[in-house]
Design the sequence.
């Protein structure tokens, strides 16, 4: 996702601690953890709307090995190079169900983590409070549009080592979790817009110049 225009177990071996409700604590040691991932990785160019890998569901992660670890490192490096707050594997052309994030919530807390095989919880009606803030996407560079999404999200999946995890977010971070999960099932945020709004977003993209390297749709 593009930036907007405008009693616990110890952290060990890359495994995040969890709180009393079972949600990962992804707000601790964020600078050190993100920097470590990024230092091991290599930034890759970003795929853009129209690239087939963005428009189909990605494959489940079934092997949690050194190859996956390297992909995660490269994703963090790519995310930072593009100045994003979230990145799905298919945004760098990889057909795997994994995303990374380095995203603040509306209270300013920084969240850093990895989710493989994410599934969003269905929210009860009392938790479905919609936020219609601006949304952008690294795969639709320079374009933004208002999009209503729930301001609370819970994602279940696995970390890069295969451990089950549950991540929750509010506000901007909730939007990020929904946005990145969408990517891995073949949806871009512009697919949730009206035809007129989608056309306007694509116009913005056509008229803009990305600030990072992209993969041309030949």
Sequence:
């Amino acid at each position: 996702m593009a930036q907007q225009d405008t009693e616990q177990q110890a952290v060990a071996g890359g495994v995040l601690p969890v709180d009393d409700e079972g949600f990962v604590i992804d707000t601790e040691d964020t600078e050190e953890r993100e920097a470590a991932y990024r230092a091991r990785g290599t930034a890759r160019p970003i795929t853009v709307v129209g690239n087939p890998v963005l428009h189909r569901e990605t494959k489940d992660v079934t092997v949690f090995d050194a190859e996956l670890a390297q992909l995660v490192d490269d994703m963090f490096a790519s995310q930072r190079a593009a100045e994003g707050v979230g990145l799905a594997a298919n945004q760098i052309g990889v057909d795997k169900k994994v995303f990374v994030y380095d995203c603040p919530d509306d209270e300013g807390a920084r969240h850093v983590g990895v989710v493989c095989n994410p599934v969003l919880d269905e929210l009860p009606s009392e938790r479905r409070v919609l936020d219609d803030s601006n949304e952008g996407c690294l795969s639709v560079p320079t374009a933004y549009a208002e999009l209503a999404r729930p301001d609370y999200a819970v994602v279940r999946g696995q970390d890069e080592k295969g451990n089950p995890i549950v991540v929750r977010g509010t506000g901007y971070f909730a939007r990020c979790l929904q946005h990145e999960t969408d990517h891995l099932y073949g949806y871009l945020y512009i697919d949730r817009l009206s035809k007129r709004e989608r056309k306007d977003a694509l116009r913005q993209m056509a008229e803009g110049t990305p600030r990072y390297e992209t993969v041309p749709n030949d």
